[in-house]
Structures
1.
Amino acid sequence: MDFAGAYSPDNLKFLLDGLYVTLIVAFSAIVLSFLLGCVLGVIRYAKLPVLSPISFVFVELIRNLPLLLLIFFMRFALPEVGIKMGPMAAAIVALTIFEGAMIAEIVRGGLNSVDKGQIEAARSSGLTGAQTLWHIVLPQGLRRMVPPLVSQFISLLKDTSLAVVISLAELMHNAGIIIGHGYNYTIPILLLVALIYFCVNYLLSLLSRRLEARNA
């Protein structure tokens, strides 16, 4: 095992470049999937005519497909119908759709967890359904969603490594290139990559705990 060679300045910079791409993809997908998941979750919770059945079919379909299939579809299938995306865009779109479906269920579950008595009290006091949702249900539901949402975001960050199959220059892709350049680099590089993923995800876990403590 050649730790000195594996951890050369050039290799470390190359890994950090990959980490930067990983974080850009993860952050973009987290924001977009959260927005998508909230919209789908609220639609399913509200049981809106037409929209709720469509949302149900979409969520159940996406949740039962492998993420890797979506990544391949965005990168290689859509160009056949004239929609071309680079590796980063394809990864972000695939992650957004896949994680958005997962988050939709988290949102729906969080909203359903709000005590029905509070909803009835709000309606009896003259609030409309939309006002009740905005002022009563959403604030309480969102606080309860924090732990599962952070867990899903951690999962999303780790799932960015699947984009290696479409040659996105993220952390695992760059790690693979370094390993290919040195016979004894495999264990040192993989250990370092594991440490990087652990540190980033552990920071997210700490953030989750602080948010839970603040909302308690």
2.
Amino acid sequence: MNDSPQILLAHHLKALKLPTFYREYEKIAKQCAAEGVDHSRYLLRLSELELIERERRMVERRIKQARFPTIKSLDSFDFLAMPSLNKVLVMELARCEYIQRRANIIALGNSGTGKTHIALGLGLAACQQGLAVGFTTAASLVHQLMEARDEKQLQRFQSQLSKHKLLIIDELGFVPLSKTGAELLFEVISQRYEQGSVMVTSNLPFEEWTEVFGSERLTGALLDRLTHHVHILEMNGESYRLNQSKRQKRAAETKASCSNSKTDPS
């Protein structure tokens, strides 16, 4: 009979989906008893732990659903290596107020300058604030759209995309699009106009986007929608990856040189 309250409590807490309450209530009760804490503060501590754990799980779920190819934060980006990038603007965007306003971001610059890193960092920041994020490359998105169309699932797939508060389309411009692919991508961006935020990264300046979409009319209409409410991140400069590789190579050579000098008997 003595075990009945514990068994019932465990059942009720599981039914109420309060796993942290269930896991921590005995330990916190002992702590509060030792500290002379009243029942209200005891419950407050438990509820705070439950909320913290629930938020952690929610962030993990958002990150998983975003399908990032890797997890990168803005803290790990070397802003000094990319002086053309407005760091103040990037950190302001990390607050995600632009998503509430349904504004867009376009990151432009040559290959290797960290556009994807910035996109991943801003996407992670949005997930940490509980916002639904989707990450894809332009080529992959077009492929999925064409597959969905062929399988008569296009409307359903478009509906899934619309649930993202922020849709990140990486690497626009690496692969020219077919006429059908360009039209399908335009439709996605058009449907999100003033309904949800889009972030696009591209290695091409705007005047060369016609080469990707194959039509001046379509390109003009797409840019008109994308740039109506937009923050543009200029990321032109030397390749971030190339410079990083050079620094690593120099560091390895220096380490090898120091190691050789220590073992040289002369």
3.
Amino acid sequence: MIQIFTTGGTIDKVYFDANSEFEVGHSLLPELLSESNIHEGYRLRELLRKDSLEMTDSDRQLVLQAARECDCARIVITHGTDTMADTAAVLAGLSDKTIVLTGAMQPARMRRTDAVFNVGFAWAAVQLLPPGVYIVMNGEVFEAGAVRKNLHAQRFERT
């Protein structure tokens, strides 16, 4: 069994035309999993519904507590990309579980999104990687504490 926690971020953003801005909405993760023909073998729980730039230290502690208390050895966390590395660093002490954080550079609701690929890649990675905390984005695996988001290039890279 794989535990999936959602925290919000771009992957779950919805465009509100009246305001001409994006806001975090309900997670599309169940639909993304279903479209990928993944119908069982996981539990889904929403922890937060925030843009990662709005996440606080107490929010990260909530994610850590949920992961620590989870009875699953394999966990996927959807997260906003801007502070994903910060949350991964907080989780890094959980060495007895395989924890994979992923997200999207474009909302899942948009036609040109990397969300479907990243979720599928995270699903595979969490089953194949040894215990530890990882960020998986756009076909690459990064260990917690050794990764940062390059805002200019809009991608993750090793530090």
4.
Amino acid sequence: MSSKNIAVAFGGISPEHEVSVLSAMQVIASLKESSFNLIPLYITKSGRWLTGTPLLELENYQDLDQLRKQATDCTFSHNDIGKPILLETEKKSFFGSREEYPIYAVIPAFHGSEGENGSFQGTCETYNIPYAGSGVFASSIGMDKVKAKELCRSQNLPVVDEFDFFEKEWENDQQTILHYAEKLEYPVIVKPTTLGSSIGVTKAEDEQALIEAIETAFRYDNNLMIEKAVTPLMEINCSVLGTPEELQTSVCERPLGQEETLSFEDKYQAEGGQKGMASADRVIPADIPDAMTEKIQSLSEQIFKTFRASGIARLDFLINEDTEEIFFNEINTIPGSFSFYLWEESGMNMKELMLRLIDIAIIQHQQKMGRVRSYDTNLLDEKAIKGIKGLKGSND
């Protein structure tokens, strides 16, 4: 068994918890025949960190209560020589010992909310652990649909008109918000600002439908975005792999759904939902003109660089079928199923994709560690302490 442990982190406090489990199982399945030792890091819906071999098998998630009993609580820590480890925080038996696993790298497989929004990435940074995918900045901005569009708009990247508001604003002044929506002209799209997988997303054709959509969306987020609907709509997605310095784009895809706007069910529950995003209906490569494909790939590269993304991301675009206008919709810094189905069409299977993500994580971590990360001075010497005492005295 390899001494290089890869922790696959998934689950989390998110409406997309189950989608995350599916993506993680795909990662684990793809790397089972690799030279790495796979360590699951499952975060429950209550925020509890668990590890253990039962977490490596998808069928065990059918009974979460039993699974939690079989798993072991864990946390990040450091060993005696300062290396990051995944540490079991309880002993399974009186005579047993707590296991500790030195971490070579982490593959975050979270979707939505805590996990994909930069919070888990920040934890990895704190423990100095290499991790696959985008850093704190790209993850946090990419998760916030409003700020993501503001960033793109500042770089003259095409986005659809929108406005956002908070729940308290809706409670205090509904009429003003409804007026703004009317100015956009119906139909409009209501979106929770910080969720993915189309959860809480509704197309509203009139004011009454809009009010109902807003009330539903506030179940998931306290900040909503109302966006002018693109009609007639065609959605096109493209994946980017690499770093802002060196990257490549995949082929494009055209997702298919029962509605004009793809739902959660369209994305994840086709064919029983066991394959995550890979089960969704789609046309690959997208049946669009070559010039449009090249434009979308070029925009994908620009946006990936603008967000300082790394690892893998999926860029989603809205196309007006009549005018062929292209609008950036969102960036997914941990795309469902890691968009492996797009890279298969580009000649790279799931295992090769995961190994590439690990390589990028290690190289970026090594580059960071090669920089000056501390300044050789002692601000806490006797002279400095006397100065601080003097400042305190001056306030008396």
